[in-house]
């Protein structure tokens, strides 16, 4: 690893990957807790469509990534109840988003792909080893902003996630909080797409959070554990991708995340239910 860090491309990948994984771990915990994993799946397809739309018109793909994911996240929030996107709202937008993705893919491959033939593949599968220094630091800045915002919102968001009605009665701005969370999910999805690609994005959001929830009932412990697991899995994937050139780093990251989640089924712990979670909230 020390030798690998002497290479700029690997150092950029570690910097960006660490920040992105931490943000994905924190965001993913609340996605799992709020039963909004389908939202993460929808935003992964939105990231694909937004990036290809930007490439098709000759813009930086990050413009399309952030505009599409944040915009669609807000749209799903407004269509759902109390800014919590439901399956009906997501399903209504899903086919349309995928159709647009196919349209922009065709437009890009027939008119723009000669300028950057690998861009479309990078959107689908990620290109974390191809990040420049500026792109890596932008990823760090965005991910750090997402992490700070989630930590600030953690307690009221936890309350609203566990019992919406009681939280609203106690004066928690449930609707505004839900919209703010979806904006953070959109920003995290846009940035994480550059690391693992839109096809594998959902795994980075769901697997560490799912493993953390199986290992502890304490919400704040699970929140921290989800971020730590995501970072550890990111480092493992990057190390494997560097050591074995034939293994794509995005695949190695997802393989590590899947193995950790699967391993949690081998650990038995007392079934304490949701009492600890409710008491902490």
Question: In summary, what is this structure?
Answer:
With 281 residues, this protein is an all-alpha fold.
Helices and strands in order:
Elements: H1 8-33, H2 37-56, H3 61-79, H4 87-111, H5 119-125, H6 133-162, H7 164-169, H8 174-196, H9 201-215, H10 219-243, H11 249-263, H12 275-280
Transmembrane segments: 9-32, 52-76, 88-108, 128-153, 165-186, 250-267
Family: Belongs to the ABC-3 integral membrane protein family.
Membrane topology: Multi-pass membrane protein
Distinctive features:
281 residues; mainly alpha; transmembrane helix; ABC transporter involved in vitamin B12 uptake, BtuC; ABC_BtuC-like
Order of helices and strands: HHHHHHHHHHHH
Count the helices. How many?
12
Structural class based on helices, strands and sheet pairing: mainly alpha
- Fraction of helical residues: over 70%
What is the CATH class designation?
Mainly Alpha
Number of structurally distinct domains: 1
Q: Which descriptor suits the 3D outline?
A: globular
Beginning-to-end CA distance, first to last residue: 40 Å
Strand content: under 5%
The major beta sheet can be summarized as:
none
Family: Belongs to the ABC-3 integral membrane protein family.
Subcellular location: Cell membrane; Membrane
Protein name: Metal ABC transporter permease
Membrane topology: Multi-pass membrane protein
